[in-house]
Amino acid sequence: SAVNKVPEIECTSKQMQQAIVDRLHKGLGTDAEKANNKAWWNATCHAVNEVVFDKLTQTQQNHSGQDTRSVNYLSLEFLMGRLLSNNLHNLQLFKVTEEALKALGKDLYEICDEEPDMALGNGGLGRLAACFIDSLATLGYPAIGYGIHYEHGLFAQSFQDGRQIERPDTWREYGNPWEICRPESIQHVPLYGYVETVFDEDGGSHKVWHAGQKLKGVPWDVPIVGYGAKTVNILRLWESRADEAFDWDVFNAGGYVDAQAEKSKAETVSKVLYPNDETPEGKELRLVQQYFFCACSVKDILRRFKRHNTDWTKLSDKVAIQLNDTHPTIAIPELMRILVDEERLDWDFAWSICQKVFAYTNHTLLPEALEKWSVALFEKVLPRHLEIIYEINRQFMEVVEAKWPGDDSKKAKLSIIEEGDDRKVCMANLCVVTAYKVNGVAAVHSELVKTDLFPEYHELFPTKLVNVTNGVTPRRWLKACNPKLAALYDDEVGADWVVNLDKLRGVLPKAKDVALQKRFMDIKKDNKIELAKIIKDLTGVEVSADAIFDIQIKRLHEYKRQQLNMMHILALYKRLLDNPDYDMVPRVFIFGAKAAPGYHMAKQIIYALNKIADKVNNDERVKGKLKVVFLPNYRVSLAEKLFPAADISEQISTAGLEASGTGNMKFAINGALTVGTMDGANIEMAEEIGAEHMFIFGLSVAEVKELKQQGYNPFDYYYNNPELKSVLDWLDTDYFTPGHPGALSDIKRSLLEGGDEYLCLADYASYSEAHLKIDAMYRDQAVWAEKAILNSGAMGKFNSDRSIEDYASTIWNLTKHPIS
Ligand code: 26M
């Protein structure tokens, strides 16, 4: 098999022990006696790095020597999680390191648990970027991820009386063994100031941007080890610092204190990751952050290009730049500015280059998430870029005029500048106008991008809008996080499923095999027992591994409908109180979710779920048949313990609103059954698995549109469904918040008077019915096991390697450069 051909890195347990103990002594100045687990973790990372850095150098020399075409993945977010376990697996050193540590009296899993998550992302979009760079390296593509070296990643979450509290994330408080600072590749970034027109001797003119402030971008490189460890690419993260060269005058004038203030101002630019779901409008620091990141990355890309090239027509042969959502859009006018103002290329030539370099991925249709920056703010921070955007737009409006002569409404819709009292720059429009390809992230989403979001652009550029369905890396999301199921698959279909997930299909014909079912269900049970311990540890709640583990983990957002899940839990609770003998398979509902700090309703839903959990878990009358747990601080490393232990995966967004979802894939790969709507990638999962092996419910995209068109009235459902009514009315009492009646009323209000934008009431009955089917099916463990195997075995398509091959062939035109 392919994997078996990969020579294992030669390393015996003895050598690994020696390397780790060596790092304890020589790297950390401690020894095996004194070292705590943190020190062991550090030493193990550094021992691993000796292999990683060697491979990194080989890859970089090879790529640079051949001047390969590469993709530059620009993303404000990379949700990497932990790297030790992942790197050990990809280097195929996990087993030997486990043995080595065991011989030293240490447990590798415990050591891995010491690592803080690299939480440089919000959710799906950031984790997708992390899966993609894993796949790019695994497949041997020359690629570089560009991101920001945030001092604080996504906030850490805890609960106080059920309410979310945010604390700063401190992932690198004591350093991070995986990153290498590269001061030799520092970049300088201008900001603010004014634009001067300089008249040339030949009668022409050009623009000079006189900056009002300058930042320094310091790159930190994180090696990205491909599976099999042939290719090691890099993730380059930019940290902002004050530019000493620029502050020199202040120093000379004796302004030491002023200079210190400038310094700390400069450092705030990369200080924190912005949590999403907050309209960043008017947030100057976010715009500065985006530009800082784009300027550093574009300059770095051009520096690498210029090492081997002088002919600008070659730029688009060597460089593809993928924009992960609109967050890095300013890279477009920045490249134009460098080509026109600094390299002094002709505008049309520069524009033709840009149109061959940039591609853009759209990750959401939610109107409030589409970035628009006020023209006034733009003018202040990036005066030259605004001029460039105006010129791009002026020329583009001529294209629109040629296509739809005299049609001003078309021009208004397609313009990069939104007119009005407060004029705005529409970043998505700039992306679509420039990019040579624009992709959505699942089939249904990409269709909606064409028909609902950008229909006029689609008419104008009929081949520009395409689909690339998301995927997840099976290295992290099966092999590393579920070692027992991974071992079963090694036995059943051969170890190379890790690089060819379609191989899992090998288990489909055996789904009814009793012995296989038993192994499969025993593994699930073991994983549930492990999770039960974690739940007890984190929340004090005791749960039984014989119950159905029903899990919803994702950012808290009304469109994802955690509140629908909550309504169903309340209904079950009510049924149990009304009838103590109500017959149901014991169920544990598990949540993990962070709410954006400024998103009131999301925080209320967290509060409500915590309050409901308190009540339900301490109510003798439900006889242990119902438990509710909200795990604090949901993050990648916690997710790795949840997916393998799930029986039910909740994927219940309003149809048309979840662009793809990727947690849905991680659950199914690990053998959970999905209760879900026909939305995002759920639809394609149903195609692969067979909808009859999932619990599909609710309105379809077309039905949602129709209902909204007719005029949706949530009260129709409220008055016609007594259970639904009593559940919602419960929220008006003080049953869950003793002494505080009305503490949960605003949730009810948003579902009724508020209009129930996300159609929770419309889908409630169908959802509740789906859960009855779940209950019935679970009683027949043979059927359940069969279904779980059929789900997991059919997930080959959702490997991020397949996504990357799609990007490489349809968008990037990228060829592999395997490193021997
Ligand atoms: C906005 C303003 C300021 C700071 C951050 C943001 C922002 C950041 C991320 C807004 C939205 C962001 O993410 C959108 C996102 O995560 N989309 C998800 O992308 C996944 C990968 O394609 C999909 O699977 C999810 O369905 C989609 O919701």
Q: Quick summary of this structure?
A:
With 820 residues, this protein is of the alpha/beta class. The chain contains 34 helices and 25 strands.
Describe what you observe in this structure.
This protein is an alpha/beta fold. It folds into 3 domains: 1-66 and 97-108, no CATH class; 67-82 and 117-470 and 805-812, Rossmann fold (3-Layer(aba) Sandwich), CATH 3.40.50; 512-700 and 744-792, Rossmann fold. The chain is built from 34 helices and 25 strands. The strands form 6 sheets. Strands 1, 4, 7, 8, 11, 12, 13, 14, 18 and 19 form a 10-stranded mixed beta sheet that branches. The chain has a 6-stranded parallel beta sheet with strand order 22-21-20-23-24-25, sandwiched between helices. The protein has a 3-stranded antiparallel beta sheet with strand order 15-17-16. The radius of gyration is 27 Å and the shape is globular. Residues 122-125, 128, 274, 276, 280, 286, 363-364, 369, 441, 470, 658-662, 680 line the site of N-[(biphenyl-4-yloxy)acetyl]-beta-D-glucopyranosylamine. This is Alpha-1,4 glucan phosphorylase.
CATH superfamily of the largest domain: Glycogen Phosphorylase B
Low-confidence stretches: 1-6
What is the β-strand count?
25
The CATH topology of the largest domain corresponds to Rossmann fold
Strand % is: 15-25%
CATH-scheme architecture of the largest domain: 3-Layer(aba) Sandwich
Q: What's the pLDDT, averaged over the residues?
A: 95
Residue share in helix? 40-55%
Through-space gap between termini? 17 Å
Name the structural class. alpha/beta
In the CATH hierarchy, what is the class of the largest domain? Answer: Alpha Beta
Small-molecule binders here are: N-[(biphenyl-4-yloxy)acetyl]-beta-D-glucopyranosylamine
Task: Compute the number of helices.
Answer: 34
What's the overall geometry? globular
